[in-house]
Design brief:
By secondary structure, the chain is mainly beta. It has no helices and 21 strands.
Length: 204
């Protein structure tokens, strides 16, 4: 009952939530959110706003979805406060394979950095941590962004990364510095992107 399929609409880039019974979240009268819709419409689409390790949802009425004390969801808020922030947990993606505009992300052969332009892929492991994720390689070591902005794969302690889904079939990954992971011109994975542009969007 607490598990939903998240689908990004290709044209609007808004999000649709489908229940295990096949119905959709929908905006109903007086700002209520119910899981009664059987067809996709403007009222079943929500704009996602990414807030680090939290996110907010804006309904078709322009209002933010909030939680009431009785547990009900209502789209009645004009701004984002504590009651409008949600924790998104992916449960069907323990493994991560990322492909960018120049190729797959893969361990560098001779250093602790990561390549972003390879024809073969490495499989990385995702583990959830309060709205963020730790990314681990086959060696059991963790990803982190070093002082020079390079993404390294030999961390002994995990570092938080957050995932954003700005369009269908693409994910953007942000480091704890708030910057996006991107492939640079030389094919190296860096954690210094200022926006989720084409170099920072990954097929997953």
């Amino acid at each position: 009952m607490e598990t939903f399929q998240m689908e990004i609409d290709r044209e609007t880039k808004k999000c649709i939530f489908r229940t295990s019974q096949g119905n959709y979240w929908a905006l109903v009268a007086h700002g209520g959110i119910q899981t009664t819709a059987t067809d996709i419409s403007a009222d079943t689409m929500f704009t996602l706003e990414w807030l680090g390790n939290r996110m907010a949802l804006r309904a078709n009425n322009g209002k933010y979805v909030c939680t009431k004390k009785n547990g009900q969801l209502l789209a009645v808020s004009d701004s984002i406060g504590e009651d409008e922030q949600f924790n998104l947990k992916l449960i069907n993606r323990p493994m991560l394979i990322l492909k960018g505009e120049n190729g797959y992300i893969c361990h560098h052969k001779t250093s602790n950095t990561l390549d972003a332009s390879r024809s073969v892929y490495d499989i990385f492991t995702l583990s959830f941590n309060d709205g963020a994720y730790h990314i681990k390689g086959v060696s059991g070591r963790f990803w982190y962004v070093n002082g020079a902005g390079l993404v390294c794969s030999d961390g002994e302690t995990p570092e938080d990364f957050t995932l954003e889904f700005p369009e269908r079939g693409r994910v953007a990954v942000r480091g704890k510095n708030g910057k996006y992971l991107r492939g640079d011109q030389g094919g190296t994975l860096k954690g210094d992107g200022l926006s989720a542009n084409s170099s920072a969007l990954w097929e997953y």
